[in-house]
Design goal:
Layout: H1 2-12, E1 18-22, E2 30-36, E3 51-55, H2 57-62, E4 64-65, E5 71-80, E6 99-101, H3 114-117, E7 119-121, E8 126-130
Parallel strand pairs: 1-8
Antiparallel strand pairs: 1-4, 2-3, 2-5, 5-6, 5-7
Amino acid sequence: MKILILLLILSVMTYSFDIQITNIENREATIFIAVFDSEEGFPSDGEKADFAWMGIVEEAEEGVKTNLTSGNYAISVFQDIDGSGKLTRKFYGAPKEPYGMSNTFKKLKMKPNFEKIAIDIEEGEVLKIELLKP
């Protein structure tokens, strides 16, 4: 019976990974992080994200605990310089504010593809995402 209870507890435990944001130049504007396990809502619909966070620069640099299990996730980040609460884009779709993604190190020329951005993340991992200038 004790083994059954232990297995039940272990099956519902959430193992966390952290996300640290680097290369933040503006020290005042809010940082937004969204983590998706499917393409639905990716990259910008925080309401459809498995994990969404907004906060100050210091917390983002220190690391944000997701409370998500290990898995395949696509992560999008942006800094809300203009205070609109969403990523502001140029007329052709490119970001006007600093942004980052889990699997990209260069500027995006079009809407990111979930499959190309998603990566396998393990329990206890600290994922660093660099903000790119628009």
